[in-house]
Amino acid sequence: MTSSEMAVLKCLVAVAWADGALDRPEAGMIDGLLWAYAADETEEGEIREFAKSRRTLKDCPLPPDLRDDERELALANAALLTHADGEQSAEEKRVLAELARKLGFSIEAAKPIILSARERAKALAGKL
C-alpha cells in the first residue's frame, strides 16, 4: 500500500466515525477497503489501531499530490461509508462535504460523485 493510500484510508476511518460511532457496517467496509488496497498485516494493524478511537479529518492530513482518480475514489468510498448503516446523518453529510473540500472538489464537482455513490448504496441495500 502506498503512503497516499494509507492517508486516504485514515480519512475514510474519520468519515466512518462522523456519526460518533464506528459500528459493524462501517468496520466491515473498512475491512473491505483494506483488502481492496492489498494492505499487508502491518498496514492492517496500523489502520485498525487508528480506528480504535474517534477520529476526525483533522487527524488525517492528505498528501498534496493525490491523483484525480485517487481523489475521486476516496470521495466515492467516503460517500458509501456514510450510507453503511442505512442512514446518512447530518453530521455524516457535513464530514463528507468537508472531505470533498479537503480533496479539492468544488460542490459542483463533488455532487455527481456523491449522488452516484448514494444510488449504488441504495441498490445494494435493495439486494440485501
Q: What layout of secondary structure does this protein have?
A:
Blueprint lengths: L2 H14 L7 H13 L4 H10 L17 H14 L8 H13 L4 H21 L1
Helix pairs in contact: 1-2, 1-4, 4-6
Compact overview of the structure:
By secondary structure, the protein is mostly helical. It contains 6 helices and no strands. The N and C termini lie far apart (31 Å).
Q: How would you characterize this protein structure?
A:
With 128 residues, this protein is an all-alpha fold. The protein has one domain (3-127): TerB-like (Orthogonal Bundle). Helices cover 66% and strands 0% of the residues. The protein has helices at residues 3-16, 24-36, 41-50, 68-81, 90-102, 107-127. α1 runs antiparallel to α2, α1 (3-16) packs parallel to α4 (68-81) and α4 (68-81) crosses α6. The protein is globular.
